[in-house]
Inverse folding.
């Protein structure tokens, strides 16, 4: 069993972007997932908090940095079980949290068995700036990548872009690393996922156009490894060139 401690990806002053650790033995239960915390002073925003069996680890990791009552935001990219599966546990644990998810999925979440009442906020298709700490977090539309109501989250302070399932890599047994070093080797672990789960190339192209002028220093996906330095550009170029995606494979 290899358990990895949280890792601070970015920190300046009282603002940080934190990866919340991993237990490699989880891959026997389900696909490995990354969770992240944006911290501003004593406030926290949690990104794709994850499924049931990672809840305890993620909660413990969050508490190393902020108090549960100071977690203001629970931001969801989409509706998959590896993203929202522990929602019921989180709402019990985070008394002041506001949840954000696409307006397409808000009406589906009560099926998890919880009346979310006032704490849930719909994100309109065009996205939103969500106030957080002394700044904000940008909910960036990324529809059909892969979910039809899908958002990424950009932190303009750290310039880290949380890309949800975009950039997902599926590791073989006994392989895992947090930061991409050899992009060409890493791309082999991403290819199958992107071809099968992303429905069409047009969705990728629209998104690449949307983000092209954003100042993105780091891309942090929900599965796989983090892109830093020149690998940010390499990843986006790789996506631009990726052919035979989704429906084209039928
Ligand atoms: Fe997904
Ligand atoms: Fe996912």
């Amino acid at each position: 069993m290899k358990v990895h401690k949280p890792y601070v990806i970015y920190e300046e002053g009282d603002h940080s972007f934190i990866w919340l650790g991993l237990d490699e033995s989880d891959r026997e239960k389900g696909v490995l997932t990354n969770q992240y915390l944006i911290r501003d002073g004593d406030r926290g925003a949690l990104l794709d908090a994850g499924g049931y069996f990672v809840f305890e680890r993620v909660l413990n990791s969050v508490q190393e940095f902020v108090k549960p009552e100071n977690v203001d935001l629970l931001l969801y990219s989409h509706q998959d079980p590896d993203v929202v599966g522990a929602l019921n546990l989180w709402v019990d644990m985070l008394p002041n949290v506001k949840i954000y998810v696409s307006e397409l999925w808000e009406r589906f979440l009560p099926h998890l068995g919880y009346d979310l009442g006032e704490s849930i906020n719909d994100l309109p298709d065009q996205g939103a700036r969500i106030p957080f700490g002394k700044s904000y977090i940008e909910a960036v539309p990324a529809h059909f990548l892969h979910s039809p109501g899908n958002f990424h989250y950009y932190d303009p302070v750290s310039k880290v872009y949380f890309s949800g399932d975009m950039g997902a890599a599926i590791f073989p047994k006994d392989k895992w690393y947090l930061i991409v070093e050899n992009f060409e080797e890493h791309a082999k672990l991403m290819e199958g996922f992107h071809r099968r789960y992303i429905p069409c190339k047009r969705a990728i192209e629209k998104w690449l156009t949307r983000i092209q002028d954003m100042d993105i220093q780091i891309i942090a996906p929900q599965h796989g490894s983090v892109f830093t330095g020149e690998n940010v550009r390499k990843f986006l170029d790789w996506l631009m060139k990726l052919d035979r995606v989704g429906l084209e494979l039928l």
